[in-house]
Recover the amino acids of this structure.
């Protein structure tokens, strides 16, 4: 399935980005019954028109997720384009018989494509040539406590954990700082939108959807099987960091829980995610 099989809104940056956002938010979300019907048509009849409707109705999800990566300094249009590729991959692999909504399943694929794009293109990855600097690049955000800028004491602690200088931590934070996407849009922003806008559908109240999010993610095609390949400690770390309803546990919080260093938690996390990636890849074969 490619963009040639459907009429996607045009996205090329600049003023057209605003028009694109308006276009994708004008596309109505599907009810659960409509989504199920389209997914079955695609998988049983290879109906590309049905696949296209599934993609179009979830383009707004990609926009919201891409906004969360504004701090990396890459063009928002490019992030959205990469996320759209992830969305199309998700639609191709989506199995409606599992009883999971496409939104929950697609989030993983959208983020994965955006992450790969950042790794290939972000300027700081090229600048950060040493192992310690790369470790700082990938872990700084998760090690920060709260939204406020780091204090010198906090920077010194992170520097000690990652084996870099406090000055490097503060410099990296300054260069990475960007806006985070709130769950709720500002009350005064008539054109504002946020994830809460599409977490609900006609058949579910927002609170019920939020309560099921963690369960939905664990039931997503192959994800439960991938988690089952991990030992108890690795699974706990992955679920706490990536599958929690809130913002997820920090490395330091998990380090306190298991009585090890934050760096050790990071190593376990990386190894666990690599193992899950292999398991997911095998499931697709």
């Amino acid at each position: 399935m490619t963009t040639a099989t459907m009429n996607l809104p045009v996205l090329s940056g600049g003023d057209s980005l605003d028009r694109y956002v308006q276009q994708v938010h004008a596309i109505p979300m599907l009810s659960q019954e409509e989504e199920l019907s389209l997914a079955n048509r695609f998988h049983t009849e290879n109906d590309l028109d049905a696949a296209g409707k599934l993609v179009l109705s979830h383009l707004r999800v990609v926009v919201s997720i891409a906004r969360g990566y504004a701090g990396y300094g890459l063009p928002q249009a490019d992030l959205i384009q990469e996320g759209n590729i992830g969305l199309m991959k998700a639609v191709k692999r989506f199995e409606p018989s599992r009883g999971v909504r496409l939104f929950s399943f697609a989030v993983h694929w959208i983020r994965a494509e955006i992450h790969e794009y950042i790794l290939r293109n972000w300027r700081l990855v090229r600048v950060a040539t040493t192992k310690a600097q790369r470790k700082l690049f990938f872990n700084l955000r998760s090690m920060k406590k709260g939204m406020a800028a780091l204090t010198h004491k906090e920077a010194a602690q992170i520097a000690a954990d990652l084996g870099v200088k406090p000055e490097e931590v503060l410099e990296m934070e300054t260069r990475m700082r960007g806006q985070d996407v709130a769950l709720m849009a500002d009350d005064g922003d008539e054109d504002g939108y946020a994830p809460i806008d599409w977490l609900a559908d006609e058949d579910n109240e927002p609170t019920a959807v939020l309560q099921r999010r963690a369960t939905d993610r664990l039931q997503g095609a192959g994800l439960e099987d991938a988690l089952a390949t991990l030992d108890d400690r690795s699974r706990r770390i992955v679920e706490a960091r990536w599958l929690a309803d809130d913002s997820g546990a920090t490395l330091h919080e998990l380090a306190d829980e298991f009585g090890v260093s934050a760096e050790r938690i990071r190593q376990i996390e990386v190894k666990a995610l690599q193992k899950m990636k292999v398991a997911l890849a095998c499931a697709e074969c």
Q: What stands out?
A: Residues 262-284 form the longest helix (23 residues).
